[in-house]
Specification:
- The protein is α+β, with helices and mostly antiparallel strands and 169 residues long.
- The protein has a single domain, classed as Hotdog Thioesterase (Thiol Ester Dehydrase, Chain A), CATH 3.10.129.10.
- The chain contains 2 helices and 5 strands; from the N terminus they run βαββββα.
- It has a 5-stranded antiparallel sheet with strand order 1-3-4-5-2.
- A hairpin with a 3-residue loop joins strand 3 and strand 4.
Length: 169
């Protein structure tokens, strides 16, 4: 991929996607099932990844899912997702979810997460994807933070591999 193939985060972002909470979304505490929010988040982030890559992408990891506050009966969930960084075949997509009482009330930050996607070809193997050209200060900050998270993921994988190799000897 060349510099000309770079895309800005805004080109693929999902902005203000809403989901109305219904009774079947609730657990025994009358709050939204965390898994329900995670499934919706994965779908919206997949849209972002597919738009950025221009091909079908698959989720290969979910990092740092932080449930900050609960969502409740009658809330509207508001999803925002964007590509934070793109490497050769993979990318990190960040997602922030807010909740707001459907009738009134301020927004509440309820979840933040980072998902890793890989672009795939017709043979379902990884393919190169466009690079990312962050423009705003916030996009540049997220771009730098994504590289730090990737380094931690790679180090963690190497540490586990070494531990398992040591155990198997």
């Amino acid at each position: 991929m060349s510099k000309a193939d770079s895309r800005s985060p805004a080109e693929s972002a999902v902005v203000e996607q809403v989901y109305l909470v219904f009774p079947n979304d609730l657990n025994a505490n009358d709050t939204v099932f965390g898994g329900q929010i995670m499934a919706l988040m994965d779908r919206y982030c997949a849209v972002v990844a597919d738009r950025h890559a221009g091909t079908i992408c698959v989720t290969v990891g979910v990092d740092a899912v932080h449930f900050v506050a609960p969502a409740r009966r009658g809330d509207v969930l508001i999803f925002n997702a964007t590509v934070n960084r793109a490497w050769r075949t993979s990318m990190e997509v960040g997602c922030k979810v807010e909740a707001q009482d459907a009738q009134h009330g301020p927004r509440r930050h309820i979840l933040s997460a980072y998902l890793t996607f890989v672009g795939t070809g017709k043979d379902r193997r990884p393919v190169p994807i466009p690079s990312l050209a962050p423009e705003s200060a916030d996009e540049k900050r997220r771009h730098q933070e994504a590289e730090m998270r990737r380094a931690m993921r790679l180090q963690h994988a190497a540490d586990l591999k070494a531990l398992r190799a040591q155990r198997d000897t």
